[in-house]
Amino acid sequence: MEEKTNLMDLTLEELQERFASMGAEKFRAKQIFQWVHKGIKDFEQMTNISKEFRNKLEKSFYIGRLEIGNKLVSKIDGTTKYIFQLKDGNLVESVLMQYLHGYTACISSQVGCRMGCRFCASTGIGFVRNLSSGEMLDQIISIQNDTGNRIGNVVIMGIGEPFDNYDNVVKFLRLVNHPVGINIGYRHISVSTCGLVPDIIRFSKENMPVTLSISLHAPNDEIRQQIMPVNKKYSIDKIIEACKIYTEVTRRRITFEYAMISGVNDSAENASELGHRIKGMLSHVNLIPINDVEGADFKKSSRQTIEKFKSILERYGIEATVRRELGSDINAACGQLRRSIINKAEESSS
Ligand code: SAH
User: Fold this and answer.
1) Quick one: which of 41, 177, 259, 302 has the fewest CB in 10 Å?
2) How far apart are CA 83 and CA 142, in angstroms?
3) For position 121, what pLDDT does the model report?
């Protein structure tokens, strides 16, 4: 028998095509698209669709909702961490953060990650598979339905390297931005990459005015190679060149993410080197006190060191901000909760 298709994975145009081949009226596609993006779990909930057509739908499609496997709410700032279980039992995580301007969801793009950054908790869990566009979208829809609050901003900074799952991520961006769906503006979305150069250039041509964040984390190849193996493939010079092409094509400012690691990349000299490299670019630097990760002995830089680093960058005319730490009591950073759950499961099975 033919495998059923997840309705969440289809664009409106794809639905229209499928329905045309089923002999259904064209307007049905929009109705169904609207229902699944509202977050319904069952075909029965499609109250404006006849039972006959619902039965027909059910033969070829399913509504791929994620299940909330676990949820932790920070007592400090209300940040909420979700563990979602996918249809095949795999787990991913998402984080909901509240800012003055509304709610932001941080979502995962893959089950695990192949990039191997040494400071990142997702590294320890290996790579399992890519998420489909619908699985990315449903992280947002499920959180909205769970909390009853509209999510206004999305960052793809959870588990995974978005550009290692390029096609599904781009399709996800189209789905999430769709006016008939949840309609989150591109300007309210950030995509973060560890610097896959060909994809940065490819992405510049997608005509999607999202914010592109580059996880730079080092001022030179020597340091970057120690903490990010991907740098062996794409050097800092190549990344910066790609970023310049990106900003020229899109006229969009790039964000450089820079995790501050004590004694590794946080000296005054490191700041000057970085400043020298990126001065004059249409960019902004986000300094992140590194989060402790089990098994990696990196320590975050002191507040004072971070402030000094920032002021040196400013001398080069570079705008820099220090990221607020949210959800520190619930392992809200980067793959940490999923990892601790998997560890516990392994402990209890051994
Ligand atoms: N793979 C993508 C997106 C996922 S990680 C990327 O590399 O950009 C999201 C951000 O969190 C990246 O900037 C990543 O480098 C950073 N990050 C990972 N582990 C971290 C840690 N322990 N402390 C602070 N930031 C971390």
Assistant:
1) 41
2) 11
3) 82
